Amino acid sequence: MRGTWLQAFRPALVAAIATAALASGVALGADDDDMVKELRKRHLELPVQGLKRHDLRDTFSETRAGTRRHEALDILAPRNTPVLAVEDGTVAKLFLSKPGGLTIYQFDPTSTYAYYYAHLERYADGLKNGDRVERGQVIGYVGTSGNAPPDTPHLHFAIFELGPEKHWWEGKAINPYPFLMKVK
């Protein structure tokens, strides 16, 4: 009887686990498990100065513009609050876009991951493409540039795994929330 019950519900259980994993932005698979373990070991810095873990809210799977998945965290903070590099790396691109406004694409030290900081008020003085940055370094300031509501300053923060071409503008989205919640 027990084996029959488990056999009957196993497909539904597997589907539920897979759905939960995809909703959290972390896919299943051997390579993805390694990626998750690697990112967890990095103990990423919280990207907004003065932020506490309990201030974070997981907005990764929320929809934007009706149907588009957000694939980032929106971290509310007062305008001009310093934005910090989450780990050592390189500024791959300072970019101005209609949706993101003033943005920073930072590659990790191995150029495996990109950290994306958007809706900035301004960049840190002197910051430029190709600069090496250190974990905790001020790289910009929270704002409302791009399509951010003018009365809701926040940092739009995303992580993505870069493809083999290492294009700063594309990659596989990874939910930052579980990794930032592990900050010590």
Overall tally of domains: 1
Number of strands: 11
DSSP summary: helix tally: 3
- Helix share, percent: 10-25%
Q: Assign an overall shape.
A: globular
CATH superfamily: Glucose Permease (Domain IIA)
Q: Based on the coordinates given, report the CATH architecture.
A: Distorted Sandwich
The overall pLDDT average reads 81
The level 1 CATH classification is: Mainly Beta
The termini sit apart by 47 Å
CATH topology: Glucose Permease (Domain IIA)
Uncertain spans, ≥5 residues at pLDDT below 50?
5-30
Radius of gyration: 18 Å
Topology readout:
Elements lengths: L1 H22 L6 H12 L21 E2 L3 E2 L3 E4 L5 E3 L4 E9 L3 E7 L5 E11 L8 E2 L4 E5 L11 E9 L8 E4 L2 H4 L4
Antiparallel strand pairs: 1-2, 3-10, 4-9, 5-6, 5-8, 6-7, 7-9, 7-10, 10-11
Structural overview:
With 184 residues, the chain is an alpha+beta fold. It has a single domain, classed as Glucose Permease (Domain IIA). It is 21% helix and 32% strand. It has helices at residues 2-23, 30-41, 177-180; strands at 63-64, 68-69, 73-76, 82-84, 89-97, 101-107, 113-123, 132-133, 138-142, 154-162, 171-174. The strands form two sheets. Strands 3, 4, 5, 6, 7, 8, 9, 10 and 11 form a nine-stranded antiparallel beta sheet that branches. The protein has a two-stranded antiparallel ribbon with strand order 1-2. The chain is globular. 32% of the residues are buried.
